[in-house]
Amino acid sequence: MTQQSTPDHQLVWQNCLDFIKDCVSDNTYKMWFAPIKSVSLQGSCLTVALPSQACFEWLEKSAQKVIRTAIRKELGEKARLKYQIPVAKPVDDNPITVTVPSSPVTNVQNPPRMPRNPYMSTGEGNPNPDLLPGLKALSIPSNLVDSLNFDNFVEGKCNQFAYLAGKAIANAAPGSTPYNPFFIYSDTGLGKTHLAHAIGLEIKANFPDKVVLYVSSDLFMQQFLEACRSNNRNDFIYFYQNVDVLIIDDIQFLAEKEKTQEAFFHIFNYLQQRKKQIIITSDKSPADITGFDTRVLYRLKWSLVAELTPPDFETRIAILNKKLENQGIEFPQDVTEYLALRVTANVRELEGAMITILAQSSINHREITIDLAKEMIDKYVRSTAREISIEFIQRTVADYFNIAVDTINTSTRRREVAQPRQICMYFAKKYTKLPLSTIGKSCGNKDHATVLHACRVIADLYETDKKMHADIDEIDKKMKL
């Protein structure tokens, strides 16, 4: 075939694009194929200009078959395709390009390197199996914190489902479990970030060849803005598409960030389709998140969703003991129990209270006793606007009526237990933000209707029965001490 005029190479490539457009999704076409421009046609060899090195790598990895079919359809079985790839931009603004054949990769002479990218570092370790042969392997720092591992994570009723799902994800090949994506949500300070790091660390230990990346939503946004400013948006997306396990923390901060959400959408789709593991944390469930594009919300709702709730009394004891053990310190048992009873909001406040006592003991050379704990924690709790927990209510009521706490959680209808149980429900409704169904489950496994009935009974007795009036006032006073 003789060399053709300029309009012909454009027509040939446009015909190829029309064919490709019917074979791939709209997003894939717009992202990777639409920016490609035809340059020349010599014989049966068509040369096209690519917008970036990332585009070249993606085409060679993911689109060789459709491109080969399209070009042969237009130019015959001996058709060839060459790429022109920009590798630098000198002062005079004339782009330097290199021309490489589309395949096989082994014939490329001195293949161009990926442009320096602020989201990655180069090195010899952690080879990425998704990279093209001949390109220098990427060593992507995981950003994981070694101390936030499963050994230091205390399992309890408050986090058991999320913990077991995380363990299953970490011990199977990334992306191979039904738990993908995995969405963890909770109020602040309840361990969702710790759990996300623990899963990532365990995967790295079990599958050292896999690329695991933890990134906060703030850093993700900063990287995206930098990529847009430097006209490297495709490089940014391509980088994240080469991760085997992507952990994004506090995704709620992407609300109202339309362009960043669009980039996340493309990354999410790519990883999901290739069975890469995605782990997301948030302070809200997918059903309660606002400010997100509908497409993104749908994908978040695909996830296995796990909630972390405030730890119960036994779990708070275990958390304190674990943190003390890690520091080689012992507290008297009554001090540990007092802390667990008084500080209930979240794990961070619990740790802060522990550190407050340790500091006071160390600086003022005071023995760690229940008196020191009361002195310090009363101040600490008041300064942190403590919320009364249902466990604290049950212990206070049980102590007042001189019965075992465990009996309140049974289904017995004996009056000496049933009435204290109703009082617990009354105070739990008054002082906690827990739904009635949760209060019922914590008090004899009752339903929300039983809780409402109990609250009405105690409220009526408070108005009509002098002894009940005095009992309620005294219990209320003890809880506020």
How many strand units?
11
Uncertain ranges: 1-6, 88-138, 382-386
Computed Rg: 31 Å
Strand order of the largest sheet: 8-9-10-7-11
CATH class of the largest domain: Alpha Beta
Oligomer: single chain
Number of helical segments with 4 or more residues: 20
Structural class: alpha/beta
How many structural domains does the protein architecture include? 4
**Which topology of the largest domain does CATH recognise?**
Rossmann fold
* CA(first)-CA(last) distance: 94 Å
CATH superfamily of the largest domain: P-loop containing nucleotide triphosphate hydrolases
The proportion of residues in beta strands is 5-15%
Could you give a short account of the major beta sheet?
5 strands, parallel
- Overall form: elongated
Q: Which CATH architecture of the largest domain would you pick?
A: 3-Layer(aba) Sandwich
Query: How confident overall, as mean pLDDT?
Result: 80
- Helix fraction, binned, reads 40-55%
SSE topology:
Elements: H1 6-21, H2 26-33, E1 37-42, E2 45-49, H3 53-62, H4 64-75, E3 80-88, E4 96-101, E5 121-122, E6 138-139, H5 160-171, E7 182-185, H6 192-206, E8 212-216, H7 217-229, H8 233-241, E9 245-249, H9 258-273, E10 277-282, H10 294-301, E11 304-307, H11 313-326, H12 333-342, H13 347-364, H14 370-383, H15 390-401, H16 405-408, H17 415-431, H18 436-442, H19 448-464, H20 466-479
Parallel strand pairs: 2-3, 7-10, 7-11, 8-9, 9-10
Antiparallel strand pairs: 1-2, 3-4, 5-6
Helix pairs in contact: 1-4, 3-8, 5-6, 7-8, 8-9, 11-12, 11-13, 12-14, 13-14, 15-17, 17-19, 18-19, 19-20
